[in-house]
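Students often ask why inverse folding is considered easier than folding. One informal answer: many sequences map to the same fold, so there is more than one right answer. In these notes we will look at a single instance of the problem. The structure comes first.
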């Protein structure tokens, strides 16, 4: 068996660790560039003695955001980048750190819509600080960016985009609205499940899932209903972090093969897309495993059932659990977000080209992928 494992140079985890931020920044550079959401003032207390150049934005990062923020960072002669917020500011920070060290058009380096060229120079130092428990972007080597022109989410990817420091403080997630807790949490749980099922799973990624998924599966409802439940928030932060570690080293599957393209077509939270598609993708993977006699995959479904329900089970139990937890936190259908019948053919084509689809444990035909969308819509 061959596998490799890469991650951030340093991971700092624990309640209250955000208080270390100003000292950490001073170690990384003298001219920090700070990227966050629409209200950067909420982090003022953690920037003692620093006057970083700041770029704030709302929504998901776009190709245009990268161009604007990178120009601002270069004008400021920034030597390190700090991304604090949900997955969007963290992803944008990684992209800006990459472009800060490299010349040329961003599109040259983008997957799918560009040439996918490797970065000539390593990205500038990055400090990634999540304030949600979902994407695990603080330990991944890619930035997911929206291209309005192509109606697609695509990745900028390079090993040097792994953050220098990932600072994960569960207390930063306490004030996340219930809808954000639900969407990001379901993204993390879906990622853990796909990391365990992917054809590129390894003993390292299996260990991460086995540690994080049982506690995460048992904690999302609690974090949703009790925002300041410290144990639940800690478990969800671990689930998010470990899902990022896993996907960065093993890839994902059909759910995320769909979720990226669909996010470029309709305004749907990424976690909602994942949660809606998860039971249907799991069901089709299980059917394919039975029809082909893939006992290894069926055994993995049994292991997942034990992890998410706490008792022995099969693929059907994992599917049922995924339906129930989504319903409990208010996740509906794709049509609730504007998805319509005419989107299906285009989405199937885009999903087949997605990098995540290549990690799915079985190959799914266009017919099966269409059936998944028909059931999820």
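Output (designed amino acids):
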């Amino acid at each position: 068996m061959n596998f490799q494992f890469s991650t951030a140079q340093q991971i700092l985890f624990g309640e209250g660790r955000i208080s270390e931020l100003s000292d950490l920044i001073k170690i990384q550079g003298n001219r920090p560039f700070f990227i966050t959401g629409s209200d950067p003032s909420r982090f003022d207390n953690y920037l003692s003695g620093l006057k970083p150049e700041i770029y704030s934005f709302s929504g998901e990062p776009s190709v245009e955001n990268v161009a604007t923020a990178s120009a601002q960072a270069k004008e400021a002669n920034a030597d390190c980048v700090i991304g604090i917020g949900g997955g969007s500011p963290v992803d944008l920070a990684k992209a800006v750190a990459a472009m800060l060290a490299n010349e040329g058009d961003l599109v040259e380096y983008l997957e799918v819509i560009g040439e996918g060229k490797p970065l000539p120079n390593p990205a500038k130092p990055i400090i990634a600080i999540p304030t949600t428990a979902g994407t695990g972007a603080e330990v991944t080597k890619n930035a997911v960016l929206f291209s309005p022109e192509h109606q697609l989410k695509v990745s900028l990817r390079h090993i040097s985009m792994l953050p220098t420091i990932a600072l994960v403080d569960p207390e930063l997630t306490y004030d996340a609205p219930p809808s954000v807790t639900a969407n990001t949490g379901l993204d993390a749980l879906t990622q853990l499940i796909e990391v365990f099922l992917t054809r590129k799973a390894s003993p390292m990624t299996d260990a991460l899932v086995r540690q994080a998924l049982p506690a995460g599966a048992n904690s999302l409802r609690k974090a949703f209903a009790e925002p300041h439940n410290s144990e639940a928030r800690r478990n969800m932060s671990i689930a998010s972090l470990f899902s990022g570690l896993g996907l960065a080293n093993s890839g994902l599957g059909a759910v995320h093969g769909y979720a990226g393209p669909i996010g470029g077509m309709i305004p749907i939270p990424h976690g909602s897309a994942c949660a809606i598609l998860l039971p249907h993708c799991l069901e089709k993977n299980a059917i394919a495993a039975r029809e082909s006699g893939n006992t290894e995959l069926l055994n993995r479904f049994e292991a997942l059932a034990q992890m998410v329900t706490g008792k022995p089970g099969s693929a059907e139990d994992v599917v049922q659990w995924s339906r129930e937890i989504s319903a409990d936190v208010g996740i509906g259908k794709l049509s609730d977000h504007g998805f319509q019948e005419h989107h299906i053919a285009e989405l199937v084509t885009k999903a087949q080209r997605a990098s995540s689809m290549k990690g799915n444990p079985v190959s799914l035909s266009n017919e099966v992928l269409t059936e998944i969308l028909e059931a999820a819509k």
